[in-house]
Amino acid sequence: MLVREILAFSTEFLKYIENPKFSAESIIAYFLGCSRLNIYLYLDKKIDKKIILPFLKRRAEGEPLEYILKKIEFYNCELYLTKDVLIPRNETEYFLELICENIEDAREIWDIGTGSGAIAISLKKRFPHLNVTASDISEKALKIAKKNAFFNKVDISFLKGDLFNPFNKKADIIISNPPYVSLKEYKNIFEYVKYEPKIAFIAKDDGLGFYKRIEKDVLKYLNDGGKVFLEIRDEKDKIEQIFSKNRWSDKKFFEDIYGKTRYIFLKK
Fold first, then answer.
1. Would 178 disulfide with which of 98, 164, 210, 242, CB 3.0-4.6 Å?
2. What is the pLDDT of residues 71-80, one digit of tens each?
3. DSSP E strands: which ranges in 59-102?
4. pTM score, two decimals?
5. 7-47: pLDDT as tens digits
6. Pairing relation of β-strands 222-231 and 171-176?
């Protein structure tokens, strides 16, 4: 079949999912080895329907496109993905931009719960002088993150362990996007999210468990004037209460691109 015919067939095949044409274009582009928009330069090129059909079936069943194609464009890099890591969101790109605006004279930066390595790799690419360390409790996630660091040609230290356990020094900036969904919430979450690793979502204490653990120990791991940047639940009052126990010299909340309170910045 010609690409133009495959495009029409694929779009119709995926008509019951959100934005079927985008998914169809993306899958075709994957097999053509070009960008999504450039498929229109190859409309008269022949392509085998049989190689595309299994991908279309997976997408029609609700599997995220990022897992089907095993890659995503994120901030300033391309990342390899599998179901062992969370799919980086647009909100995290905005979070990253806020962090970049507040790097100042920092040298030692930690990304705790790095997953695919999205934040750590993006920071290192933009600021090569930084010493970036990324940690995760999942060996499988670290394997993906290391592969992404290699593909993006950045030198990052990787540590395995839970929260601060792998670290034996101090940082200028500590970043984390920890799990913040309660078990009850997870049971009612969108079906497509359940393709992603459960460990990356669920937290104890009604989704607040990791924030409480971070608050308990984080000051011990910060240099004077050090900062903490966290993605949070859209529950400003509860998060503010957790971080009111320590005397921070500065504390700010920021909204995401959808107007939800999504980030907290703290300064020692």
1. 210
2. 999 999 999 9
3. 71-74, 77-80
4. 0.90
5. 999 999 999 998 999 999 999 999 999 999 899 999 999 99
6. parallel
Cα separation of 260 and 254, whole Å? Answer: 8
At 134, the pLDDT band (50, 70, 90 cuts) reads very high
In sequence order, the 6+-apart residues with CB closer than 8 A to the CB of 219 are 246, 268
Residue 260, phi then psi, degrees to nearest 5: -95, 145
Pairing of strands 261-267, 222-231: antiparallel
Write out pLDDT tens, residues 178-205: 988 888 888 887 777 788 888 888 889 9
Give the burial string for 160-189 (b: 16+ CB within 10 Å, else e).
Answer: eeebbebbeeebbbbbbbbbbbbeeebeee
Q: Which of 126, 94, 123 is nearest to 110 (CA)?
A: 123
Query: Cα-Cα-Cα-Cα dihedral of 237, 261, 165, 204, to 10°?
Result: 60
Nearest residue to 187 (alpha-carbon basis) of 171, 208, 166, 201: 201
Residue 37: count of CB within 10 angstroms of its CB: 9
